[in-house]
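User: For a benchmark we're assembling, each entry needs the component sequences followed by a predicted structure for the full assembly. Here are entry 17's components. Please fill in the structure.
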Amino acid sequence: MSKFNKGKKREGGSISTASLPDIVFMLLFFFMVTTVMREVDLKVKLETPEATQIEKIENKSLVSYIYIGEPYDSKKYGTSSRIQLNDQFAKVLDVGPYVEQKRSEVNEVLIPKLITSMKVDEKTKMGIVTEVKQELRKVQALKINYATRERLNSN
Amino acid sequence: MPSKRRELQEINAGSMADIAFLLLVFFLVTTTMDSDWGLARRLPPPLDINQPEPPPIKDRNVFVVLANANDQLLVEGEILEINQLKEKAKEFIDNPNDIADLPEKKITKVKFFGNYPVSKQVISLQNDNGTSYDLYIQVQNELAAAYSELRNKLAAEKFGVSYDYLVESNDKPKIKAIRAIYPQRISEAEPKNVGGQ
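Assistant: Structure for entry 17:
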């Protein structure tokens, strides 16, 4: 009697797929938990510059975003840089009310912790950025963050 | 026949995987993993008309960085490339050999360090309306890197760990001492409009 049943022909049994739903569910829950829905539809081309000295924004609910860049639909909106707040294009003067709107939504205690994140395309000229910054100064929104990508080959 | 007792049937779970896959694909597509990273800065408060003029700062204490509409840098009257800016800024901030052109030092009492000569450096940054945002961020980044390298060096000499490590472990008194010696003073002048839009 051989120990390992060498002679006996194995049957080609199919792999049980009963645990497949479990695996898929596991993945599903992972993505459900980590997912963050895109807050807005970008209407401007956005390629942020690279930097090395960067910090992470911890509390996303305290951030208001300002997007500046060249419109995607350049036939309709032209090629000069535009400001986008929420889902629409805006003028420089709309920045102040936009930040104040955000302020009124959060708890009073958290107001000093509010951050304005400037997501600006790297090809934008400083003129429009400076105008927005002056507007932010007027409404006392002094904590700002220039959104950047991380430069990998730091030297 | 109605009188016959129905047998308890199991629900077919074969399509469960398909449903789960469908949901999975949906979340895979909508998910964005990118978290928000960036350079944190503080804007100066709005100008008050009644505010008295600030006392003039000596020329030797100011490190002037100018950026024009063609993305060229003029640092202390010298045309520099962006990759030379950090070393130049570090030399200015630290002034290790007490050169007469570089900032003065004031003996200040700092916790952990005792009386320490703290340089009176200020970095002044001015750009044109036509300067690209990319260059502006690169300049900000290089200046921040200059400060952070000096802070790291000082922390390594004094505490044996880098400044980044102190920040990570949230060691507030030590961070405060290092910051008192190398305060980040970057002032941005109102931009000029020479190069046009």
